[in-house]
């Protein structure tokens, strides 16, 4: 993973490396009253903009997305020393992937299945009477931490 030790470091490359090397993101949701909830979910990123995961429809975060689609996400490297945090922070809009987009979403989710050690997803696993659904969060803003160690978020750009 790239090490950034100056403001001129490539923060976009750092952010992409964090996304590329992690299996889980922490998803922040809120219910209709604004009560927050966070959940770790196994994810797949598509172009560093769309983040897919599979969850049960009755999971609290799934119910929250249904009533309040604005979410926050953090993906972080938990292996670095204390106070050397490397993380990507996202503001996003989440949805259950609609039926018309489900084939494409399943294809994206399955691309790195072997490398992640997960079972391939079938469309039938996430539709009809199946208890699971495929979700997608589309990032509207990307941030990482200031490379000088200050608790300051610095915007980074996703890929096109």
Automatic annotation (TrEMBL):
Classification via Pfam families: PNPOx_N
Domain Pyridoxamine 5'-phosphate oxidase N-terminal: 13-109
Xref: InterPro entries: Pyridox_Oxase_N, Split_barrel_FMN-bd
Protein name stated in the entry: Pyridoxamine 5'-phosphate oxidase N-terminal domain-containing protein
């Amino acid at each position: 993973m790239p090490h950034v030790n100056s403001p001129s470091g490539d923060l976009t490359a750092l952010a992409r490396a964090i996304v590329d090397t992690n299996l889980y993101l922490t998803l922040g949701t809120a219910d209709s009253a604004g009560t927050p909830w966070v959940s770790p979910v196994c994810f797949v990123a598509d172009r560093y903009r769309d983040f897919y995961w599979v969850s049960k429809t009755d999971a609290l975060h799934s119910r929250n997305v249904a009533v309040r689609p604005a979410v926050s996400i953090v993906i972080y490297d938990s292996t670095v020393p204390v106070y050397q945090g490397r993380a990507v922070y996202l503001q996003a809009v989440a949805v259950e992937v609609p039926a018309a987009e489900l084939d494409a979403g399943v294809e994206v989710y399955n691309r790195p299945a072997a490398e992640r050690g997960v079972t391939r997803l079938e469309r039938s696993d996430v539709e009809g009477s199946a208890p699971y659904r495929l979700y997608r969060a589309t990032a509207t803003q990307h941030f990482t931490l200031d490379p000088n160690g200050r608790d300051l978020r610095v915007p980074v750009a996703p890929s096109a």
